[in-house]
Amino acid sequence: MQTIIQKVKKRERVTYEEALKLYELDLFTLGKLAQDIREEMWGKKSFFNINRHINPTNICKDICKFCAFSASRKNPNPYTMSHEEIVDIVAASSANGAKEIHIVSAHNPEAGLEWYMNVFSKIKKAHPDVHVKALTAAEINFLAQEYNHSYDEIIDMMVESGVDSMPGGGAEIFDEEVRDVICKGKVTSDQWMQIHKLWHERGRKSNATMLFGHIEERHHRVDHMIRLRELQDITGGFNTFIPLVYQRDNNFLNVKNFLSSQEILKTMAISRIVLDNIPHLKAYWVTSTINLALVSQEFGADDLDGTIEKEMINSAAGAKSGVGMPLGEFVNYIKNSGFEAVERDSLYNELKVW
Ligand code: V47
Fold first, then answer.
1. Residue 244 Cα, ligand 1 centroid: separation in angstroms?
2. How much is the pTM?
3. Does the C-beta of 284 come closer than 6 Å to ligand 1?
4. Confidence (pLDDT) at 225
């Protein structure tokens, strides 16, 4: 273990086996290793943005067992928003200071490719300054298959329609056996990687998530991180890694063992150590709770996502994020936890220290 600790201290890259071994460290020693890296990179800065999440439809062709958002037996309330509704929401959020609109939908075979694409053009036309972060690799894969296009063609349409960056959703856990159990039939790990690679090749940025705390084991998480690190070595296009803590309500994954806060913090710390080539680590308060997200700032995380305003995917599964977080409260939380609240744009340009 001492050899691994020395490697981390010398900022040498850890292997898969070494990263897995790091889980055996006590929480505070591991946290300190990650925290030194975070402080070297970002000091006491904790980044956030003023953003709005919009989830325009919950009608989905795929059946992910962990999902409580898509219309199903457990959530029999199908909806699809009109473009006017969506543009109105953007107008209101932008007037409230939102600089980023995060749009993630279900895979709705009734909506049409134009419905997916045109809304971005409409948003951009009405609000050219708003950053549109939209379409996960899972949605891109769905659109390509459903409407018989290549990934390149869909990505070109996104760029043309004004999408600025891609969110990190749909990554779940890359291990194929786990994936087969939790989201069989959805975008594969290789396809997810390929889509982000194509997006990065256009000089665009994206994020990468990891859904953990369900049926996966530690080694699956480390494998997930290592696969991302390998792609990032090639493209350099990922801005942020976002570990998402599995929410247990209203879905079909019958998970008996829930993660402890210690295990969540260890996973944050190990991801900061392993992902030496991804600049930011996000503690997504929606799935970790705000208090654990604040503690994560001392275990490697430098980003807390944003105010969100409304969120429907994770809140459907039990997260307390339905109405987002008021800006003043968010800033207070960060400052009271001993960090500097730095408002950023979607590409991490610093806008204001609060
Ligand atoms: O891919 C679904 C996850 C993701 C559950 O890029 C669940 O900045 C926990 O990708 N428990 C969508 N998670 C959200 C997402 C995201 C969120 C915030 C920021 C960014 C970013 C991206 O939500 C899905 C899936 O992995 N999810 N169900 C659940 N029960």
1. 6
2. 0.97
3. yes
4. 98
